[in-house]
Design a protein that fits this description.
The chain is mainly α. Helix content is 21%, strand content 3%.
Length: 120
C-alpha cells in the first residue's frame, strides 16, 4: 500500500494499527520517504527588515549636590553615589520626603509598591 502511494493514515486504518506504528515500520524497512505536502515559503511574504533606530542622544544630567554626612539621619537625602571605599563617595543631600530617608526622586526608585497588600 505504501509503495502504491497510500498515506500513513490509510495504511494504518487498513491494518488496524496506529499511524506511528506504520511510520516506524516504513522507516525500519528503509522504504522510500515521501516529500512533505507542506510547501515552505510559498504564500507568505517575508517581513520587511526594520531599519536600525536612530541614535538617541545622551540626556544632560546635572551633577547632584555634594553633601558629606557624618552620621545617618537628619533632614538630607541619604541616597549614595559612588563606592564608599573610594574618594568622591557622597550622598544626594536633597530635602527628604516625609518619613523616608530619601528625597522624593530617590523614594520613587527605592520603594516599589506591591501588587497585593501584605497580611498584617
Amino acid at each position: 500500500m505504501w509503495l502504491e502511494g497510500a498515506s500513513l493514515s490509510v495504511v494504518a486504518a487498513a491494518l488496524g494499527t496506529s499511524r506511528n506504528a506504520v511510520a516506524g515500520k516504513v522507516h525500519r524497512l528503509k522504504l522510500a520517504s515521501r516529500p512533505s505536502p507542506i510547501i515552505r515559503g510559498v504564500g507568505k511574504p517575508k517581513p520587511p527588515v526594520p531599519e536600525p533606530p536612530a541614535p538617541v542622544p545622551e540626556p544632560v544630567v546635572t551633577p547632584p549636590t555634594v553633601v558629606r554626612v557624618a552620621r545617618r539621619g537628619g533632614a538630607r537625602c541619604q541616597w549614595p553615589f559612588g563606592d564608599p571605599g573610594r574618594p568622591g563617595f557622597r550622598f544626594c543631600g536633597g530635602p527628604v520626603a516625609v518619613g523616608r530617608p530619601y528625597c522624593p526622586e530617590h523614594v520613587a526608585l527605592a520603594y516599589v509598591p506591591t501588587r497585593t497588600p501584605r497580611a498584617a
